[in-house]
Amino acid sequence: MASYFMNAKKHVSLMFHKGALIEEESGLLLGEGNEGRTAKFTSLADMEAKTADLQFVVLKWVKMQDDLADK
Q: Could you give the 3-state DSSP secondary structure of residue 6?
């Protein structure tokens, strides 16, 4: 579903595999590649502020996987 990048010292990044296929309007997912998108969190407060957006993305990802499995 996602990979955690721990090399950065000032933020945490989650890279969502197939994130480019997730339609979301919050701007949480960043990037322009064909496949993945990244969510970046700069502090605990930033993560708390983006919790609803992150939950939305995770639920969309799970639904996308379920839809692919049904084909």
A: coil
- SS3 track for 8-47: CCCCEEEEECCHHHCCCCCCCCECCCCCCEEEEECCHHHH
Q: Once rounded to an integer, what is the mean pLDDT over residues 15-39?
A: 91
Q: Report how many domains make up the chain.
A: 1
What is the value of pTM for the model shown?
A: 0.81
Give the pLDDT mean for 18-27.
91
Give the pLDDT band (50/70/90) at residue 9: confident
Torsions phi, psi for 64 (to 5 deg): -60, -45
Q: Contact 53/35 with Cβ under 8 angstroms?
A: no
